[in-house]
Amino acid sequence: MIRVVLPAHLRTLARVTGKVELELEGPPTQQAILDALEAKYPMLRGTIREHASLKRRPFIRFFVCGQDWSHEPADAPLPEAVATGAEPFMIIGAMAGG
Q: Which label site among 21, 28, 29, 66 has the fewest CB atoms less than 10 Å from its CB?
C-alpha cells in the first residue's frame, strides 16, 4: 500500500481527509503513483501534472524520504520505504514570493 500526502487544497478538491492510500501494480514510480491517484480521484487530473504532457506543474514538488524528487525521471523507481508504506510520497505546493 502506497501512502500519499496531499496539500490541503488538493485534499479538499478530492474530498479526502488525511493521507491517501493507493494500490499499485508493479514497482512504485512517480508516474505510477500519479496515474493511480488521478484514476482514483479524477478531479485531480490537471492539478498536479499538465493534461497533455503529463509534466509536473510549476509550484508542485514531490518529496520522498525527506528528499526532493521533483526533478527525478518520472519512471525512476522510488525507495523501498515508499513501496512498503513505511514512508509516504508527499506532494507539496511550493511557495514563491518577492
A: 66
At a CB cut-off of 8 Å and minimum separation 6, what does 4 contact? 19, 20, 21, 22, 33, 37, 88, 89, 90, 91
Model-wide pTM > 0.85: yes
Cα 86-88-89 angle, rounded to 5 deg: 140
Give the residue-averaged pLDDT of 65-69. Answer: 95
The partner residues of 3 in beta bridges, in order of sequence, read 21
Confidence of residue 31 (pLDDT cuts 50, 70, 90): very high
Q: How many CB atoms lie within 10 A of CB 45?
A: 13
Residue 98 to residues 57, 58, 59, 92, 94, Cα–Cα distance (Å): 20, 17, 15, 20, 14
Which residues neighbour 16 within 8 Å (Cβ) at sequence distance 6 or greater?
6, 41
The helix (H) or strand (E) run that includes residue 81 is helix 80-83
